[in-house]
Amino acid sequence: MKAISDFSFQARRFVRAIAAYGVALLFVLQVMLGLAQFQWNLTEPLLEPNRTTEEKFRSAWGTFFDVVQFVKTQTPPDAVILIDSEYIYHNLMLYFLYPRRLLFGGESVFRANSEIGFILITDGYPDYAVTGETKMLDDSHGLLRVSR
């Protein structure tokens, strides 16, 4: 009976050791891959340290940054802007477009809020009839100044 209990004790000890080594290996791999990604993220800024803040944002955010800059230049700081809630970057817009007031939604939000002065045009949005002046940034992004 003692031999069986010694065997089960050694087996449990072996399984614990394997599990501990496995966790340690996963941790080391995570750190190594994380450092590689960190180095990759720093490579471009370090190669071109004299870039402007705008150039750095554009390289990091791509066309989203262009859309934000377009909306900033075309709207006053106290503007109320309606943005499609399905737009992929709609939460980031809160940060980049402050102090403008942003509302998210569709036609029901537009009809319920008469203070909306602008609508961000994205692929297929707005999908309801709105009258106003349209200024396009590119083929899929623009701004509609609402006239009521």
What structural class do you assign from the helix and strand content?
A: alpha/beta
Q: What kind of oligomer do you see?
A: single chain
Strand order of the largest sheet: 2-1-3-5-4
Total of DSSP H or I helical runs spanning 4+ residues: 5
Helix fraction, binned, reads: 40-55%
What is the percentage of strand-forming residues? 5-15%
> The biggest beta sheet, please?
5 strands, mixed
- Cα radius of gyration in angstroms: 27 Å
Q: What is the count of β-strands?
A: 5
| Uncertain residue ranges | none
Mean pLDDT: 85
- Overall geometry comes to elongated
Terminal Cα span: 90 Å
Order of helices and strands: HHHEHEHEEE
What's the topology here?
Blueprint: H1 2-47, H2 53-61, H3 63-74, E1 80-83, H4 90-96, E2 101-104, H5 107-112, E3 118-121, E4 132-136, E5 142-146
Parallel strand pairs: 1-2, 1-3
Antiparallel strand pairs: 3-5, 4-5
Explain how this protein is built.
The protein is of the alpha/beta class and 148 residues long. It folds into two domains: 2-50; 55-146. The protein has five helices and five strands, in the order H-H-H-E-H-E-H-E-E-E. The protein has helices spanning 2-47, 53-61, 63-74, 90-96, 107-112, and strands at 80-83, 101-104, 118-121, 132-136, 142-146. The protein has a five-stranded mixed β-sheet, covered by helices on one side. Strand 4 and strand 5 form a beta hairpin.
In short:
The chain has helices at residues 2-47, 53-61, 63-74, 90-96, 107-112, and strands at residues 80-83, 101-104, 118-121, 132-136, 142-146.
